């Protein structure tokens, strides 16, 4: 009984530790939402799952230490639904970030982003006018475009140097005009019309006004989606690893809990019993 309780206590401690990377991933997404991604509701399910695992693991640990069967049963019962919720969240995260990526541009180090490359629930939510006004305002307030300026020995970078930079999706989509507009580089956030004829509405939406830039462009919306996709894929890899370990720990915990119940009820384990209707006769 004591060794079984020790095993359950150890498993609860492990699940407590596993809740840390899940909670950390949610907090990281929250910091990204505040600073760059600006989509501030997607991280909360992950934070709730991480906190729930942490709390229920402490309950299970206390149940193992004090031999409280109810707390250990509650731990296994709730953990089942938490694992199911984590599976659902991972599937949801991959589903809403399934499509879309940046397009490579000839002689450029960065990618260009186009809204038509994305689809689904997340794209519809980001592209909606009511929601986009909040996101674009957040991007503007984060000053991500103002921070793009680079100087080398006090001299601003040249066009050729800028063209080889690895820009983030939001920097590429929101802080400069799309490459196919044919604009001429002045500095990182100032461009002049080059006279090219293209069928891209973002070309008319670009403004050298530092409060406008390409915040009303579809490329900016696509850049936000591209940034979200990268962030979520990183967190999802960690979540999948944690999920696999959680399932293994849960299965072992169920086996240990059943063994506890068997010992509490004084049930035999691995022992075959035979009953005889009559005792054997001894023949002389």
UniProtKB/TrEMBL annotation:
It comes from the Eukaryota. The keyword Membrane applies. It is a multi-pass membrane protein. The chain crosses the membrane at residues 7-29, 41-66, 73-96, 237-257. Pfam families: Tetraspanin (PF00335). It is found in: Membrane. InterPro entries: TET_plant, Tetraspanin/Peripherin. Keywords: Membrane, Transmembrane, Transmembrane helix. Its main location: membrane. Belongs to the tetraspanin (TM4SF) family. PANTHER family: TETRASPANIN-8-RELATED (PTHR32191). This is Tetraspanin-3-like.
């Amino acid at each position: 009984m004591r060794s079984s309780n020790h095993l359950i206590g150890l498993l609860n401690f492990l699940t407590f530790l596993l809740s840390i990377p899940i909670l950390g991933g949610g907090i990281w997404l929250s910091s990204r939402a505040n600073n760059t991604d600006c989509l501030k509701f997607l991280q909360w399910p992950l934070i709730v799952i991480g906190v729930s695992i942490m709390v229920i693991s402490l309950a299970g640990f206390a149940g193992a230490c004090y031999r409280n069967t109810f707390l250990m049963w509650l731990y296994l019962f709730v953990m089942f639904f938490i694992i199911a919720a984590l599976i659902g969240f991972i599937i949801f995260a991959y589903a809403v970030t399934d499509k879309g990526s940046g397009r490579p541009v000839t002689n450029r180090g960065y990618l260009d982003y186009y809204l038509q490359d994305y689809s689904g629930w997340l794209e519809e939510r980001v592209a909606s006018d009511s929601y986009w006004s909040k996101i674009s305002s957040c991007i503007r307030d984060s000053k991500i475009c103002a921070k793009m300026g680079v100087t080398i020995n006090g001299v601003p970078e040249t066009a050729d140097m800028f063209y080889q930079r690895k820009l983030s999706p939001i920097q590429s989509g929101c802080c400069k005009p799309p490459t196919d507009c044919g604009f001429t580089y002045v500095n990182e956030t100032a461009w002049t019309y080059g006279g090219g004829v293209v069928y891209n509405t973002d070309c008319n939406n670009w403004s050298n006004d530092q409060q406008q830039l390409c915040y009303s462009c579809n490329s900016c919306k696509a850049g936000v989606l591209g940034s979200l996709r990268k962030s979520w894929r990183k967190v999802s890899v960690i979540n999948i690893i944690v999920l696999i370990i959680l399932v293994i720990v849960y299965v072992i915990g169920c086996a240990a809990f059943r063994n506890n119940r068997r010992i509490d009820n004084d049930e035999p384990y691995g022992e075959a019993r035979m009953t005889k209707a009559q005792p054997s006769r001894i023949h002389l």
